[in-house]
Structures
1.
Amino acid sequence: MFKKILVATDLSEISEQIINAIPSLRSIGTEEIVLVHCLNIRDVGGLANTLSPLIQPVLNKQQTQLTEQGFNTRTEIRIGIPAIEINRAAQEKDCSLIVVGSHGYNLTKDILLGGVTTAVLHTATRPVLVIKIEPDEAKGSKPSPWNPLHHILYPTDFSDNAEAAFLYLEEIVAAGAAKVTLLHIQDHIFGVHVKDRLEVFNRIDRERLIQLAERLQAKNNKTEIVIDVIYGSVAGEVIKLIKEQPVSMVVIGAQGRGHIGEMCLGSVSNKVVRYSPVPVILVPLVHS
């Protein structure tokens, strides 16, 4: 599933915390890591070849940290537009997951982990794991232990992209997930126009969630599966549930049906990434 991953690093304190969190991914099958730093050609211009040898020792230090954790790790310094190069590297090296970082409750302002993270999310053809780093951790304190398999939240609008994300969720459950919450939210904007049929929609959507739960149980009958259909603001309700329950990771499609307002998981996923206090895997829908 996520045997070989790409970790994007800007070599800052923020990225050190990302490196420290990577060992937790062993629980979802990670064995190989491609550690990538990209020099933005717009910033460095003709200095790229001069800067690369200066950067390599710092990159090697992070490589050593990961190697000592038992990962087969290689490094790459790329020159170009970071988001393009990160996605290109993931494809060329056949990485099944791209790992980037974000800071606090907003995407961080650092060169790689801010605008580049956003650009990676918008253009990725591989799933992207966004790991949230709190400000005190960015200053060097030891991050709290993280178990990705403890409690996974899967919000779905039953779109094709949500199904693509569910295929990854099935593999995560097979890897030993302890608990999964399958969540569908009846959008309050859309619901205003169908109040008289809301109970019908709720019943239909609950049946859909039950079918998804059965698929997960077939992968691992020891996983606790919870299903929930609620009414409200889609992104707001997702964030509320994350904060109220001990969710360890969110798996969500990068785009949704796009009918009305927040029914589109494109807007929802962006908000979830920005405001979720836990890591989020965004799965793009790749058209053949």
Note: The chain is about 45% helix and 25% strand.
2.
Amino acid sequence: MVPVLIIGVSASGCSAAIYCSRRGIQPLLVGVDFGGEMALSGEVGNYPGFGTTNGIELVRKFSNHIKAYDIEPELGVRITSLRQVENGFAAQGWKWSPEHVVSYEAKAIIIATGTRPRELGVPGEKEFRGKGLSYCTVCDGPLFKNKITVTIGGGNSANESGLMLADITSHAYVITKNQAMKGDTLLIERLKNHPKATIVTNAFTTKIIGADFISAVEYKDATSGEIKTIDAQGVFVHIGMLANTDFVMPELERAPQGEIIADSLCKTNIPGIFAAGDVTNFPYRQLGIASGQGIAAALSCVDYLNKLQ
């Protein structure tokens, strides 16, 4: 049984691992991949001390930092269940494939599993995923050079997607069901003023159209009630995220949308389980906040482990 199992290898999980190690507790750090949604961030200009950087560069620096503390994350691990056992907790899952079952036992758990993209739930979405439809503009946007794209969403991730695609494509549409785009005022103004970007408001996406690949997006104009289409070769969905908490035990308190309820010290309602970053019910989703919560979770966890001795 290890002292602490940290589930999730991104900003909060890596920060927690570093602080556990600095306090003399070597953590076991596991996760599906390194970086999570952080790795998919485009331009990052609000992470203190870094000026302007990007998600890939941040991931590289996080990786180098944990290596300096002899922390080697176990990647390819998807945890599918978590339960209490005598003197701690047991986590079970698989590594790289469901056939390769893995299990871990730890005195304490830090959950830092982050979030995943929310789906639209409209006809054509599942059929055209990977055939012109993507949830990651940073990953797939460059594939649509000189083509027409549609970003669906109304917040900062949609604003960033629209701006990136406007620089790459022949034209980038951003459609939102809201009356106006929300988020960072500077981003919205840049998007509005970009010569190759068009914002379409009051637009409820109804269908993704195509044959072998996407050819258009259908939406309902909430003002007129008309069904309209935009011809496009690429669609990027940015309508929010869902917390990765499917594996936690039912006794662990969660918000209606699945986020783990944690206090200011990142403690949950179950002693010995801590949560940090976007997976929690903290209302703001920022890399800096995730890192800070990872640190808080680690320090709370160390205090908890010290009291067990």
Note: The longest strand covers residues 97-111.
